[in-house]
Amino acid sequence: MLLAIHSAFISDPRRFILPRNTRTAVSEPDAHISDAATNISHIVFGIGASVQTWEDRSLYTHLWWDPNRNRGFAWLDGEPRKTELVPHRVSGQCSGPDYSCKSAAVRMARIVVEGFKLGLKNVRWFVMGDDDTVFFTENLVSVLAKYDHNQMYYIGGNSESVEQDEMHSYEMAFGGGGFAISYPLAAQLVNVMDGCLQRYHFFYGSDQRVWACISELGVPLTRERGFHQFDIRGQAYGILAAHPVAPLVSLHHLDSVEPLFPNKTRIDSLKLLMEAYRVDSSRIIQQSVCYDRRRKWSVSIAWGYTVRIYPFLVTATDLEIPFQTFKTWRSWSNGPFSFNARPVSADPCWRPVVYFLKGVQEVDTRGTKTSYERFVAKDEKVCDRQDYGRVMAVKEVTVSSMKMDTQLWMKAPQRQCCEIMDRGSDDNMWIRIRKCSKGETVTT
After folding, report:
1. 2 assigned to some structural domain
2. Among 68, 116, 377, 421, which residue is least crowded by beta carbons within 10 Å?
């Protein structure tokens, strides 16, 4: 009779038997408790990798890793062939049967546990990512600083493709986009992780297993819109050109999308984006919208990345919706996505003229000047209307701004305003980004 009951439970992989207590006694040091503002030293990164992939994908990590400021490790399944810029550790073994311990997903899921057990001092957050995740660490700090690190938090983002969210969970932080676990939550996970992994051995990925174990502790996902899993195919341009009013925290799956800038490699594209980010981290790809009332043009700026000029008036509600320059991750379909997207018109006269970042420079210590040059693909049809030709005559756009105060992310979010400055040149448009005045809208 007992055998029959046992068989009934294990015949369906989503059913499980409650195991005996597998809790591990772990002390919780008080070093994480402090009133000081959160900074990069309070974060420990756990980068999931393997010896097979690390040599190539570590190029992505090298773009953002600062050995003088960042703490953490790349967690590998063996010793790498050569020493890297990023410190590494070889993952240990979990305590459980082979079916729940042998997969790479289990090894990755245990990174937060192994990182916690290192006993590093003054840790507030454990941040997980993949070896092809690019973090924008200053913005990550701005996001985490909003939350009380003495509470149990699980922070991240969903997939862009609905098919992925439905297959895994809308309540799960997708791991490639990165997610953050507060110290108190990590302390609780250490106690339950290995037993929990046995119960969810049938799950696909490490992020899904971590979510399941956190769910057992009753902690929900806190969503932040700057974590980007990039479960998309094709061009990420549409998403980056109309980013939500939130700090850019991470990018992922960069081998699976086209280079972010035309005529550049993936790595060189990211280097250029990082160059702008290091000049004004808070403002990177933040959208501003303004209008040339005399010529009835609409302008959308994604600072440090691209400018779009329309030779007609477009509402702000349309400009903030990304162009669908991409397809879904698994089925390569035209949606659905977890956000609104608008189609790219087949008629070139209804498309904007596009400019990409050319260069960035600091002005004194508080200001910036960025330049963007016009781009037309070789096989792209160009509108032959006269009003469109006047926009095409603008070969370069120059944008000036004050550096964005990181403390603005601690307040209610608001897109900043911009205004077109008349410099008397037909081939160069000058634009200034600034804080909006009280009661100001893009049409006033």
Report:
1. no
2. 68
